[in-house]
């Protein structure tokens, strides 16, 4: 039960931080697989490479698995990730996203996560 709760906490924390950054996040809020939209096919490989440079493993999914303009990155959560692991990854992901110009949302749903 403790690991399941930690997985849930990690999932909600990571998802909300992505939203706060400006990612458009899809999927079930309780799923440990968190899809964030990239949209532009050319940016899929670019973002994946930028994350890999920063030692962050991501899964990008594009055409033909998705319609051409709905490419996405999937982040996979684990109960074994510490809050420090998540924060480090999120900082690197934010830097990679800025490099690739991936922020499309001006969401008013930005909330601090405690």
Fraction in beta strands: 5-15%
Shape: globular
Rg, nearest Å: 14 Å
Helix and strand run: HEHEEH
What is the β-strand count?
A: 3
Instruction: Quote the average pLDDT.
Output: 89
Stretches where pLDDT is under 50 for at least 5 consecutive residues are none
How would a textbook summarize the main sheet?
Answer: 3 strands, antiparallel
Classification by helices and strands: alpha+beta
Spatial order of the strands forming the largest sheet: 1-3-2
User: How many alpha or pi helices?
Assistant: 3
End-to-end Cα distance: 22 Å
User: Can you give the helix content as a percent range?
Assistant: 40-55%
Describe this structure in words.
The chain is of the alpha+beta class. Helices cover about 45% and strands about 15% of the residues. The chain has 3 helices and 3 strands, in the order αβαββα. α1 packs parallel to α3 and α2 packs across α3. The chain starts with a helix and ends in a 14-residue tail after the last helix. About 25% of the residues are buried.
Chart the SSEs and their pairings:
Elements: H1 2-21, E1 33-39, H2 41-53, E2 59-61, E3 71-76, H3 83-100
Antiparallel strand pairs: 1-3, 2-3
